[in-house]
Design a protein that fits this description.
It is built from 12 helices and 15 strands. The chain has 396 residues and is an alpha/beta fold. The protein folds into 2 domains: 280 residues, 3-Layer(aba) Sandwich (Aminopeptidase), CATH 3.40.630; 111 residues, 2-Layer Sandwich (Alpha-Beta Plaits), CATH 3.30.70.360. The strands form 3 sheets. Strands 1, 2, 3, 4, 5, 6, 13, 14 and 15 form a 9-stranded mixed β-sheet that branches. A 4-stranded antiparallel β-sheet has the order 9-11-7-12, with helices on one face. It has a two-stranded antiparallel sheet with strand order 8-10. Strand 1 and strand 2 form a beta hairpin. The structure holds glyoxylic acid and manganese (II) ion (3 copies). One manganese (II) ion (MN) binds next to loops. This is Allantoate amidohydrolase. Belongs to the peptidase M20 family. InterPro entries: Amidase_Cbmase, Bact_exopeptidase_dim_dom, Peptidase_M20.
């Protein structure tokens, strides 16, 4: 099956691109994607496995293939209202590249695998790249077990409902030891690429912080202004502070999610919880951005009689991809551009444990994490060709 047909076959699985996807780890939409993965793997006689952390693999290991595998792939899960490309492009391209290699009579000397990692966006349980963090031991298994979704279901409970043993979640050295390298193909996410394909140099330091403002619920009409302890006010100051700090430090800071309790039009809020996403080229600038937000939130919370706490939920230091591997891939692709990104990826997590690399496919508008996310069909085909070249280079 050609790339276009394969791509089309996934577009309608668990949503539609125009409305934006809500493919969250192990919800119906994401499970449909996993079923699609199993069907496509079976149609190609690939052996499917799910590891003890919920990551899926399809293995091509014809006679004679031995040693540590070359792994490619990405993730199915989306952000709320996500586009079609972030994640799935890497998986569909992997199947299409494998088809090309087979058509061309290529026989790998090492096993070649396609991976679909769990909870890359962290949209359900809050920590991005949770599947690859668990696999590589980059998150404490006990902490992961206790992460909760919006309905209060813990990751351990959800994993058990999915058929995994919660006690076995966590670092999997045996599996990691079977992987020689990982190459993730991904749509580029910021209009940083003006040719069809590029190779990643680095991922910016980035993290997530939770801000809790505790006030006092009361009547919107009868409570005198002087008597209020309204958590919305320091929250609003914190949002503006994030923007201003990002401008000062040359970083990116976003408050894209907030929960207000109890959430009544005529009720002064009793609690506001917000999440700050901060990223930048330099670790210190990201730290300074968060410190500035914290200071403003603390000061304004105090001024309004509101309790405040800030907690780091995750932090990923700068990822410099394996230089030898990235130079080898850029050369194999005829000298394509090498560029950094402000987006996080499983490849970034695994890079501390394995040689990893990323291929980017041009995004003409740069829009991502939104329904308008796009890559032109011709560029996607160039991505498949590039991935096939890279797999042949690494598994030949
Ligand atoms: C993942 O896509 C991220 O960068 O948030
Ligand atoms: Mn994403
Ligand atoms: Mn992604
Ligand atoms: Mn104020």
């Amino acid at each position: 099956m050609g790339f276009a047909e394969l791509w089309e076959s996934l577009l309608t699985v668990g949503g539609d691109a125009a409305a934006g996807y809500r493919r969250f780890t192990w919800n119906d939409a994401e499970l449909e994607c996993r079923a699609w993965f199993r069907r496509e793997a079976a149609a190609r006689d690939l052996a499917v496995e799910e590891d003890r952390n919920g990551n899926l693999y399809a293995w091509w290991s014809p006679g004679g293939a031995a040693g540590r595998a070359v792994l490619t792939g990405s993730h199915f899960d989306s952000v709320p209202g996500g586009g079609a490309f972030d994640g799935p492009l890497g998986i569909v391209s992997a199947f299409a590249a494998l088809d090309l290699l087979r058509e061309r009579g290529f026989r790998p000397s090492r096993p070649v695998g396609i991976a679909a990692f769990a909870e890359e966006e962290g949209a359900r349980f809050g920590v991005a790249c949770l599947g690859s963090r668990l696999l590589s031991g980059e998150i404490d298994a006990e902490r992961a077990r206790g992460l909760t979704d919006a309905g209060g279901i813990t990751f351990a409970e959800a994993a058990a409902a999915h058929g995994l043993d919660p006690a076995l979640l966590g670092r999997d050295d045996e599996r990691l030891g079977r992987i020689g390298c990982f190459v993730e193909l991904h749509v580029e996410q910021g209009r940083a690429l003006d040719v069809p394909v590029g190779v990643a140099s680095a991922i910016w330091p980035h993290g997530r912080w939770r801000l809790d403002f505790h006030g006092h619920g009361d009547h919107a009409g009868t409570t005198r202004l002087a008597d209020r302890r309204d958590p919305m006010l320091p929250f609003a100051h914190a949002v503006i502070a994030a923007r201003e700090a990002a401008e000062r430090h040359g970083t990116r800071a976003t408050v894209g999610k907030v929960e207000v309790e109890p959430g009544g039009v005529n009720v002064i809020a009793s609690r506001v919880t917000a999440w700050l996403d901060a990223r930048g080229a330099r670790d210190e600038s990201v730290r300074e951005t968060v410190a500035d937000v914290r200071r403003t939130a603390e000061e304004t919370a105090e001024g309004h009689g509101v309790g405040f706490a800030l907690r780091e939920e995750s932090y990923t230091a700068v990822v410099d991809f394996n230089t030898a591997l990235r130079d080898r891939l850029a050369a194999a692709l005829g000298g394509v551009p090498v560029l950094p990104t402000g987006a996080g990826h499983d490849a970034g997590i695994l890079s501390a444990h394995l040689p990893t690399a990323m291929l980017f496919v041009r995004n003409p508008t740069g829009v991502s994490h939104a329904p308008a996310e796009h890559a032109e069909p011709g560029d996607c085909l160039a991505g498949v060709e590039a991935l096939a070249t890279v797999l042949a280079e690494l598994a030949g």
